[in-house]
Design a protein that fits this description.
Chain lengths: ~500, ~500
């Protein structure tokens, strides 16, 4: 609280790091690459979890829980999968410590070596499909629609709180179906759930699209994704939904008897979203004064600060506020009355601004006399004076207005930062001067994609689902292309 | 479903294992000692989580998240703690796999050895107190009231689903206070929360007590516990709350400046409950026909089964049931209408009995004519016919009646199986013929406690908080004792 945040224009990366720390969202832990999610940050994550979980259940999914550990041999059963994950996984090799007979210190007991090493799950397809083998015999057992909330570990060399950490929290859906069409429909449905959640709850517009083979999930036939644009004009993948074909069914021999009695391999999907979304939420909306939270995800939606000179004044204000708090809570609005005597109003204002509380109400003696309340919006930093009678209705409407305004602002930002490039020079010029989403023609080859990535650090974020047919030539190879894909530098 | 469960009297242990499997609660996973919690079992656990989480929040606690991994050296900082956990922890030694250059198989990459091994958390005191060091400077930072929902790993040699598994799910509260008295009050408050939850939600009466030094948590000054009695007359510890004194504050140098500016070590508590509670829930109430679930934790509280001969009859019944379902849902009752054509009513009855659905309603053509509904209670296996108009009110009341009846039955069972023993012979006779809780005098020494355990496998479950002063002599040593403690063989 003592000094200002770095500004976004000065140093976006430092601004993000400091904001995460000062708004009490999370911090680096003493364990390399792992984070501690602090209570305020976790309460936002809990709101995200609850909203997503409700949506999963409304679409017929149930939660379950599968083991943290995966036998090394399981990982190898799907060839692409092991290729994708073996290089970054934490390996458990022993199950006991002992006192070193020489030094007396605590060391790994060499006698307690595991016969087969265990991997800490980087994702759970393998252990789940090995289980589904026993759960699925007939078409009557399908579809199987399961989700799991869990921690996963991927040994990342460069980590960044929420965006890329060795351990992170996520949910992973794993479904099994009788037909390819049904599995594809599920994959698309869950992409839709993610898009709806990110747009309606996080107030963040997303592009829906398909990944190129290069960027596909290890073991998937098709990876669908949603992509959002951050304020530094980098893209952030906010959720993925994979059509697995019969890849894992074949790797784990999961077959079912169809209505005609024929044995067939099962069709699968998996889909995930993680604490990365916290990073997206922070980076998309916040400003140089701190967090800006969409009301639907704000742990505190309204804070009330009394302006007083003495105990007597405070008592009179508090009496009035008590009724207000009660009325707001009746409408399901989460409200905090900060009557602590330890800090001055100005300090409190800055504190709640930093923490992104959407609406701040202030009441002083003059307000009591005039029957008014001062209303400050976090997102626009505007203030107005309203009558006390009207305030509960006004706050309720204003929360909706703010939710929409944050979304609209992010959408306008994305639109202002989406460009078409028709030549490679133009492409590089946009990338270096402005960044953002660049719509360009691509010849469809991995070679071209990799060359562009090597030379510019831009990747194909997705082939948009709503892309229109448009004849053109690849910005890199000059070969023909029939629609534009979206490039960006990304988190 | 095809054959009957083993009965409790035949083989209690097999009855439990089969019940867990057939009621679709959980199963052993391909990973040694780890379980898969299946959707039906997990939905019960979710209800338990929600209820406990609400109670934690009502008592001022916030959730947060700390790393899965603990550096080996952290574990050693508290002498008793490492002693208690080092012998059973999973150790991560490497962070990458590679293809074996000779065989081509996937092996641990020897070049990716960690400088310091990481332990998969068996409990999080060490990593949390190492974090609290930075969060606590002044008395104004206290109390710090935090809870975490997480998975933990303890390498158990003999495992049993829900009761003792290598990985399990739990919550662990970790709080920090300015005074010893406040920390003790917190420890006792959280024991009270557990007791209330287990009694009011799980319908299971518990003894509240203190553990002997032998049974104390590794690193605690005092361990409080709640103990429940299962139907095979073994005890099950259903939750523990630890007063940590300044042990972890000293191990991790966590000091605060008090109001007078003096630096003091912080006082701590920790408290936990786990998926073990699922085991207690199953073992305490269920019968030879399957699960018996207290209505407050039943994922489906009411199932409605139509009795019909043809499509036309089904349509008429379904029309009537639709209104009933709507009215029940309006009261917040979770109801399922099973109109599937794949199974006969008798099969469905057995299925829902096995799954412990508290109330089953059946409607046939005669019921339509007479304006009646058949109501069957799972707990008592009794049936009655009620009028259709009255049924929603009746179901609502009956759910409460059943919740209470299950509790009363468990309490009566415990009372019938609690005995006093005044001599060691009497003690052993009760233990071998009946088991249950045995109230006996004990001389207060670890030696006596260990001898009794060695000779009888009975342990001191607790020194009850409500024990009355009573002069007597230790059943083993004959030395004087001023109150009885509770012995039992335990899970």
């Amino acid at each position: 609280m003592s000094k200002a945040l770095p500004t976004r224009s000065e140093n976006y990366s430092e601004w993000y790091n400091e904001l995460v720390k000062r708004a009490d969202l999370a911090e680096n832990s003493p364990v390399r690459g792992c984070m501690v999610i602090k209570p305020y940050g976790f309460s936002i994550w809990e709101k995200m979890q609850r909203a997503l979980d409700d949506m999963f259940k409304e679409t017929g999914h149930s939660n379950a829980y599968f083991p943290l550990f995966i036998p090394k041999s399981f990982l190898s059963k799907e060839a692409d999968h092991v290729e994708g994950f073996a290089k970054e996984c934490a390996v458990v090799t022993h199950y006991r410590l002992m006192n070193d007979p020489v030094t007396g210190g605590v060391v790994v007991d060499p006698a307690a070596k595991l016969e087969e090493e265990l991997i800490v799950r980087p994702t759970s397809e393998t252990v789940i499909w090995s289980t589904y083998k026993n759960w699925i015999q007939s078409y009557r057992d399908l579809p199987l629609l399961i989700n799991q909330w869990a921690n996963v570990v991927r040994w990342e060399m460069r980590t960044r709180i929420f965006l890329r950490t060795t351990e992170f929290l996520w949910q992973e859906g794993h479904t099994a179906h009788a037909t390819s069409a049904e599995a594809v429909a599920e994959t698309e449905q869950m992409l839709g759930v993610y898009a709806t959640f990110v747009e309606e709850w996080m107030a963040l517009p997303v592009l829906r699209g398909i990944k190129t083979p290069n960027e596909r999930f290890a073991g998937a036939v098709e990876t669908y994704c949603i992509e959002a644009l951050m304020q530094d004009n980098r893209a952030l993948q906010a959720g993925t939904s994979h059509f697995l074909g019969q890849n894992f069914a074949k790797a784990f021999e999961v077959k079912f008897q169809d209505k005609d009695g024929k044995l067939e391999y099962v069709w699968g999907t998996s889909w995930g979203s993680s604490t990365r979304l916290m990073g997206a939420l922070i980076m998309a909306h916040s400003d140089d004064s701190g967090l800006v939270l969409p009301p639907k995800l704000a742990p505190i939606q309204v804070v009330i600060v009394p302006i007083y000179r003495d105990e007597n004044q405070l008592a009179r204000i508090s009496e009035k506020v008590a009724l207000l708090v009660k009325d707001l809570k009746k409408r399901g609005i989460s409200v905090k009355y900060d009557d602590s005597d330890a800090y001055k109003p100005g300090y409190k204002f800055a504190e709640y601004e930093l923490r992104g509380v959407p609406i701040r109400l202030a009441l002083g003696m003059r307000d009591l006399e005039n029957g008014t309340v001062e209303v400050a919006r976090r997102d626009t930093k505007t203030k107005e004076t309203r009558t006390y009678e009207d305030i509960v209705d006004h706050v309720e409407t204003l929360l909706e207005t703010i939710q929409q305004a944050i979304y609209d602002k992010a959408l306008a930002y994305r639109e202002a930062n989406s460009h078409k490039a028709d030549t490679y020079d133009e492409f590089k010029e946009i990338l270096d001067s402005r960044g953002g989403f660049i719509y360009a023609h691509w010849d469809g080859t991995s070679e071209t994609e990799e060359k562009i990535k090597e030379e510019t650090k831009a990747t194909i974020r997705c082939i948009p689902l709503d892309a229109v047919e448009e004849q053109g030539t690849c910005i890199y190879s000059g070969k023909p292309s029939s629609r534009r894909v979206v490039f960006a530098r990304a988190y």
